Automatic annotation (TrEMBL):
Segments forming domain Ketoreductase: 11-191
Organism taxonomic ancestry: Bacteria, Bacillati, Bacillota, Bacilli, Bacillales
Domain of life: Bacteria
A GO term for molecular function: oxidoreductase activity
Keyword field: Oxidoreductase
PROSITE patterns noted in UniProt: ADH_SHORT
Gene Ontology biological-process annotations: monocarboxylic acid metabolic process
InterPro entries: KR_dom (IPR057326), NAD(P)-bd_dom_sf (IPR036291), Sc_DH/Rdtase_CS (IPR020904), SDR (IPR050259), SDR_fam (IPR002347)
Pfam families tied to this protein: adh_short_C2
Name under which the protein is recorded: SDR family NAD(P)-dependent oxidoreductase
Family, as annotated: Belongs to the short-chain dehydrogenases/reductases (SDR) family.
Length: 252
């Protein structure tokens, strides 16, 4: 717990892809304790504003910011904006990502590059840039939102599984690199979560998936947010390099 430079509720969290779904739930969970929250988005301006309004109802200081995380230049501009508002993050939640469904034989090179750029390159560039202030402060939390498929793999989701598997490896390696600086790096790898991302499945397919899950249901985004919040706490400072999968017993 040593090294923290300000009380937890006075810290700042940056949630990438924070406009809806799991990202919005994470932003709202941190806002519930009055923390400074930066909601990043790419195009979902209205959704980001709606999430911001919900966060502000808790008395949190909230900032919305757009950036294409595949662009180092845009991440630099994002950092400059956060500096201007005195909201450089103590906690970085790398949640932004896209999925892809389909046989690998049908995947184009452009689709491969797009999924890898958003999920892996975006996480790399954002982390590389924002971890510098954490290293200087000898305190910080980096939490990457991965997926159960990054652990077990999934048929017809080969690109997505590969990208999330890369995030898991990135998490483990970076945790060792940053541990001496008082910065923890962990990943949360959810199973099936009731978000828009499940919209690619019809009702019969969703029911079949639920029957495979021992808990008998999908996770609620708030349940994922609670785990992210726990990993961000000062007293969680000895937990690092872990891939934790809240999946209702689907994968053990």
């Amino acid at each position: 717990m040593s090294g923290t430079h300000r009380p937890f509720p006075e810290q700042t969290v940056l949630v990438t892809g924070g406009s809806r779904g799991i990202g919005a739930a994470i932003a709202e969970r941190f806002a519930s304790v009055g923390m400074n929250v930066v909601i990043h988005y790419l195009q979902s301006h209205e959704a980001a504003n709606e999430t911001a309004r919900t966060c502000m109802q808790h008395g949190a200081k909230v900032l919305t910011a757009t950036a294409d995380l595949r662009s180092k230049e845009q991440i630099v501009r994002l950092h400059e904006k956060l500096q201007q508002h005195d909201m450089v993050p103590d906690i970085l939640v790398n949640n932004a990502g896209i999925a892809h469904y389909g046989l690998l034989s049908d995947v184009s090179e452009e689709q491969w590059d797009d999924v890898m750029s958003v999920n892996l390159k975006g996480t790399f560039l954002t982390t590389q840039h924002f971890m510098q202030s954490m290293i200087s402060e000898k305190y910080g939390r980096i939490i990457n939102v991965s997926s159960i498929w990054g652990i077990s793999g999934a048929s017809c989701e080969v690109i997505y599984s590969t990208a999330k598997g890369g995030i898991n490896a990135f998490t483990k390696a970076l945790a060792k690199e940053l541990a001496p600086s008082g910065v923890t790096v962990n990943a949360v790898a959810p199973g099936a979560v009731d978000t828009d991302m499940m919209g690619n499945f019809n009702s019969a397919e969703k029911e079949a998936i639920e029957q495979e899950i021992p808990a008998g249901r999908f996770a609620h985004p708030n349940e994922i947010a609670s785990l992210v919040y726990f990993l961000a706490l000062p007293e969680s400072g000895y937990i690092t390099g872990q891939i934790i999968s809240p999946n209702g017993g689907w994968l053990t």
